Amino acid sequence: MTENKVLTILLIEDNWGDYRLVRDMLHDCAPEGFQLLHADQLAAAVPFLEGHGVDVILLDLGLPDAGGLDTLVKVHALAPEIPIVVLSQIEEEALAVRAVRIGAQDFLVKSHISGPLLTRSLRYALERRQLEEHLYRLAHHDVLTGLPNRKLFYERLGRALAQARRNQKPLALLLMDLNDFKGINDSFGHHVGDELLKQVSGRLSAALRATDCVARLGGDEFIVCAGDLADLQDAARVARKVLDFLEPPFVIEDHTFRVCASLGISLYPDDGEEMEALVRNADVAMYMAKGQGGVGNRFRCYSRQLDDATQERQELQEALQRAFGEGQFVVNYQPQVDLHSSRMIGVEALLRWHDAEGKVVMAPDRFIPAMEESGLILEVGEWVLKTACHQAAQWTRETGRSLKVAVNVSPRQFRDPRLTDRVRHALEAAGLPGKRLELEFTEEALQDDEELAQETLRELNRLGVRLALDNYRGRFLSLRDLKRFPIHSVKLDRTIVRDMTESAEDAAIVQAVISVAHVFKMKGIAEGVETRGQADLLRQQACDDAQGYMFARPLSAAAFSELLQREDDPRQLQ
């Protein structure tokens, strides 16, 4: 507050002599600094307080329609945001202390006041109230976005639940977080991440009604309380509107981001009658939405079945962590064959989960998504990479054959800012040339953030590593799009290869992919080849390499070593 600001003061005082005394003191000390309003009883003060133009209240505790501290309580209830300075005939320390505890900023005894004391008290009262409001805002609002924080949100949620019970109307809780926000922070810096959070907050506020409450819980997690709904369909409409507002790209500095979010919905009273249950169930639904995979915004509504699925997911993630610690994961190797020379030119490293007796515990398509979700894939993926590189180097030393080893990189690994360093360290530790390692990634990894994907691939390319697009189906990227990336090979998805001998459409897709790949100087690789008919058709269409059960099933490292030593003629793999 500046000293030059004109303060509007409301004096609530029934003694006209005291009114004139206050007026004269203010005029003598600061004639241009104060505007004085007067009410001679509490009822007469109400219109002034409703007008929102009063800065400070001077209050006499003895009024015709209110008396004692009850006067202070009533005025504070009418205008809780306006600081109050009490004027009293009674000089009593205990009364002054109680007045301040109830809500007064200061307590002045009429017989002891002077002009300077009065003006100083009024300005200090306003400054203290402003400081209190600032501290309250710091304690109840997120400093970065200005949205309510967890504490304030739960206070408002409690009131909204009480109102929903009284009105017997549904209330929706929406919990949302941004997909791969950590990758943006790591790749572009926290200042970019902070600006993105501020822009997201602005869009959320714009998408919601004034009666809804949106808060930032921390990190990239936001929560919304939406009341006065008719049913679950109403809640779903709110969720769609929120996600629609996030669809347009965000522009920060020289970067453009398309941000995707996962959102979970729980509904009062169907999914819980207390806030703890509603928050927990919205969290369950959000993680199920996140687990759906794919690219784009998505939401899920809570159901009892989700609870069971969440419990199973948590148990699986815990079991995977134990299995990794106990050495239950192994790497198998499936040969890759040059279709035209029938020579084995490489292997693909495949992660498998075996128990202590060597029996398969679970198929990779079930446990790898759980690793991806929990983040364990980063640690396990690095172990697979190191194991495969060491094994490839060992085979070279034992047989003299320079086989290429292909290793899968999951979307989460691909977004890891340390990916290039992990690959470099694995190659150096094994003594394996970069050209002997091929990293396979999916088109979803490229689609999430094309700018980041291009930079990551360029860094890997500088290591000499070969790059292959795995399971290509053209869902998100056309082959023409691929020329923007330094890719060496395109692997046809096994579902297309499987049906190509029976489906003219799938055969045409295979032909088109291989032809365009060759135009861009990429190799075409087919996986899942199981029959000679498939292999023959792939040769006719000039496919370069293939792998599948027709040539060999995935083998343990020991079994593959025996195969290399036994096979004088690689054509026996046909």
From TrEMBL:
Coiled coil residues, start to end: 299-326
Keyword Coiled coil set for record: yes
Keywords: Coiled coil
Origin species: Denitratisoma oestradiolicum
PANTHER family recorded: BIOFILM ARCHITECTURE MAINTENANCE PROTEIN MBAA, DIGUANYLATE CYCLASE DGCP
Lineage per the UniProt record: Bacteria, Pseudomonadati, Pseudomonadota, Betaproteobacteria, Nitrosomonadales
Organism domain of life: Bacteria
Name the UniProt record assigns to this protein: Phytochrome-like protein cph2
InterPro entries linked to this entry: Biofilm_reg_signaling, CheY-like_superfamily, EAL_dom, EAL_sf, GGDEF_dom, Nucleotide_cyclase, Rev_trsase/Diguanyl_cyclase, Sig_transdc_resp-reg_receiver
Molecular functions per Gene Ontology: catalytic activity
GO biological process, one term: phosphorelay signal transduction system
KW Coiled coil (keyword) present: yes
Pfam families documented for this protein: EAL, GGDEF, Response_reg
